[in-house]
Amino acid sequence: MNTMLIIFLLFFLGSHDSFSFYIDEASPVGPEQPETVQNFVSVFGTVAKKLMRKWLATQTMNFTSQLGAGIRYFDLRISTKPRDPDNELYFAHGLFSAKVKEGLEEINAFLTEHPKEVVFLDFNHFYGMQKCHHEKLVQMLKDTYGNKMCPAIFAHEVTLQYLWEKEHQVLVFYHSPVAVEVAFLWPGQMMPAPWANTTDTEKLIQFLQASITERRKKGSFFISQVVLTPKASTVVKGVASGLRETITERALPAMMEWVRAQKAGESGVNIITADFVELGDFISTVIKLNYALDEGEDDTT
């Protein structure tokens, strides 16, 4: 890989709802959930949460396993937990997952063992967060990563060589006004992630292709979410089977066909996220796309 390539022109692998390999069925329902879901759980209790987990868990591998497989972008949603005596911060997607501190430390352990690896941490949803919680999260990032974090600069100035020379391994994107107050927080608008919000594979692919065309105007990092989103009727029909079996596995061949046709570069794909990243040849396919980029450079020299 050419180390002088600007990193927003490269392919990176990402996972959607990266933390959802662990969802605590004993936890309360997340504060972002609508009243209908809250009422459903209040009536059916643990049974309801077990069914919810089948649709909320979008990954099976923990952070260490994802990193080992090649995932470098992490989609993170943070929440406070109602009536939590420890006032901790948690990853959350409908139900609560692990403590944020534990997840950050797990990622840091991998980075310490692999000093040339770079990850993107995208904090894109916050639930029940007050100013004091944001301050706590910012301090947690400082304590965990320190100089590993790359200060926010122009995206076109960041190459692998630059990161290695500065010993930076972490780019933190923060979708909150708090980002403008902290040097190592990259504003959320520098990591756009348009969402198709559809169960239809054909509509998803059309949306992904149109989004890449729009990317040319942004000059930033960019996420292509190769993800189908279930509707309420979809969940009802496949309530016992869950997201993976009902949607993801069935749509995988068509989605992978689109991925294989992509190219990197300013008007191409940058970060691709998916559910259940271990399925099929998603990981190996995206990695190969970067080698294709190197070959293209060789052809022009």
From TrEMBL:
Any one GO biological process: lipid catabolic process
Listed GO CC annotations: synapse
Domain of life: Eukaryota
Protein name per the record: Phosphatidylinositol specific phospholipase C X domain containing 3
Short name of any one Pfam family annotated for the protein: PI-PLC-X
GO MF, any single term: phosphoric diester hydrolase activity
Domain Phosphatidylinositol-specific phospholipase C X per the UniProt entry, residue ranges: 10-175
Signal peptide stretch: 1-20
Keywords for the protein's UniProt record, in alphabetical order: Hydrolase, Lipid degradation, Lipid metabolism, Signal, Transducer
